[in-house]
Amino acid sequence: MITGQDLVEWQLRIASGEELPIKDQSMIPCIGHAMEARIYAENPAKDFLPVTGNVWHHSPPVPANLGGDTVRVDTGIEAGDNISVYYDPMVSKLIVHGRTREEARKRLIDSLKNYQIAGVPSNIPFLIKCAQHPVFAEAGAINTGFLEEYADDVKIDASIGPVEQAVCALVASLALENRVAKNTSNAVKQTLGPWSNSCGSWRLGMKHQRLLKPVNDTAFDGELPGITCTCNRDGSFDMTIVTEEGVKTLAIDGIFDQNNQLQVVVDKSKRRSFTAIPKMDKEAGTIAVNIWPTDSICFETEGAVSMVFEHPLYSNLDRFTSTSSNEGCGSVNVRAPMPGKIARINFKEGDSVNESDVLIVMESMKMEHAVVANMAGFVSQLYCSVGDIVNDSDVLAVVAEEGDESKIASS
Fold first, then answer.
1. Ramachandran angles phi, psi of 97, nearest 5°
2. How far apart are CA 199 and CA 190, in angstroms?
3. Which residues are CB-neighbours of 24 under 8 A, at least 6 positions away?
4. What integer is the mean pLDDT of 18-34?
5. pLDDT tens-digit map of 309-321
6. What span, in angstroms and rounded, lies between the C-alpha atoms of 106 and 178?
7. Gap between the terminal Cα atoms of the chain
8. Are 317 and 324 in contact (CB under 8 A)?
9. Radius of gyration from C-alpha coordinates of the chain
10. What is the rounded CA–CA span in Å between residue 348 and residue 262?
11. Residue 136's pLDDT is what?
12. Which of 137, 136, 128 is nearest to 155 (CA)?
């Protein structure tokens, strides 16, 4: 960028037996300033440990591998590719150019903030902090001891703030209700009936609640409790989040446009803008959410925020496997597939069941829905009675392996 010459092309030509195209050093200019940042699939909050995984979303600030006068991205990664154990975890090189060093530095920061990658954690938040540091901003002030001397200044915190958690939970909730990339503004809602999912989860006499449980292996690896999402009849949500200061409830509403641009209103007054990308994986039993701020208001983290939630209906973490159930190994939780009323319970605690036996029958939306056992064993616990009103994903029963009668509830 500063010489106008493609040095890699030179290398290839010389390796093929050609001569140097320019031999007079005075013909090589030095124009402006250029900086390069290397994007890695690694977790800065966990000692920069490299990670593997599927890059299910990759959107650099400019089209990749096409050159550019001021911003360039060189990469071999496309959306859908895997970061494997067989290569180093570098995703790409981001190169910027400016007439001055300061112009190049600011362009680097803007480009990093507009670099979107999801599926694996990256070092982008760390690179942003480094480029924003006042010592880095001063020409000639930085040296090889920068990271050691200013480690606390550029450290990436693993925590996720309550507003960011609420926005991620909002995106997951909109994805579950099929309200992603739809115009659900108030003007549009007024033209729709109460049965439209764009107007929220309408219920007679009660508000729909859903518990979204974060998976711990998110990019920020936060030990986060579940977020209770209460859907209001206007389509907004009340997000109840446990923080270090106590329980906090945020009123939050948002709409997507066709380009996954999310406009959010927090507590009916604070407006935020994001690019939001959800991925629902029924096989893995998860809903992954990445958000990138697109306005000038920064939250507690720089750049992207990533959270992965258990899918309330397809979670492999405690419905389809035995190792993650809170009842211990050899048991699975049986959850309500939707809100409704318990109409019949076909087994009592201690009864043996086969896989796919109908344990419970629910009434919902004027229809009966069978809730079946996900494994053979016996009913170790029942958490519901006939006539109970239950919410989406509530645990209704626990099925344990035969021979472990210690799991039968003493009550």
1. -135, 145
2. 9
3. none
4. 94
5. 998 887 665 433 3
6. 38
7. 74
8. yes
9. 26
10. 47
11. 96
12. 128
DSSP 3-state assignment of 244? Answer: coil
Q: What letter represents residue 326's amino acid?
A: N
CA distance 129 to 96: 17
Residue type, 391: N
Q: In whole angstroms, what is the distance from residue 305 CA to residue 291 CA?
A: 5
Question: At 118, phi and psi to the nearest 5?
Answer: -135, 150
Strand partners, 309: 214, 287
Q: By the 8 A CB rule, do 341 and 362 touch?
A: yes
**Contacting residues for 399 by C-beta, under 8 A, at least 6 apart:** 331, 332, 334, 353, 359, 373, 374, 375, 377, 378, 379, 380
Q: What is the DSSP letter of 378?
A: E
Q: Name residue 158's amino acid.
A: A
**Angstrom distances, CA of residue 190 to CA of 186, 194, 196, 328:** 6, 10, 11, 49
Mind giving me the DSSP string for 269-313? Answer: TEEEEEEEEEEEETTTTEEEEEEEE-SS---SSSS-EEEEEE-TT
CA distance 98 to 57: 28
Residue 143 neighbours by CB under 8 Å, 6+ apart: none
Nearest of 132, 117, 90 to residue 219 by alpha carbon: 117
d(CA 379, CA 351): 6
Q: How far is CA 120 from CA 61, 178, 308, in A?
A: 18, 25, 11
Bridge-partner residues for 238, per DSSP? 230, 251
In this predicted structure, the answer to whether residue 226 has a pLDDT above a threshold of 80 is: yes
Cβ atoms of 251 and 238 within 8 Å: the answer is yes
Q: What pLDDT shows up at residue 202? A: 54
What are the backbone dihedrals phi and psi of residue 60, each rounded to the nearest 5 degrees, phi first? -65, 165
Quick: pLDDT tens for 285-303: 899 999 998 876 555 556 7
Greatest Cα pair distance in the chain: 90
Q: What phi and psi, each to the nearest 5 degrees, are found at residue 321?
A: -125, 165
pLDDT digits (tens, 9 = 90+) for 162-214: 999 999 999 999 988 887 765 555 555 544 455 444 555 555 556 788 889 88
Residue 195 · residue 233 · CB < 8 Å: no
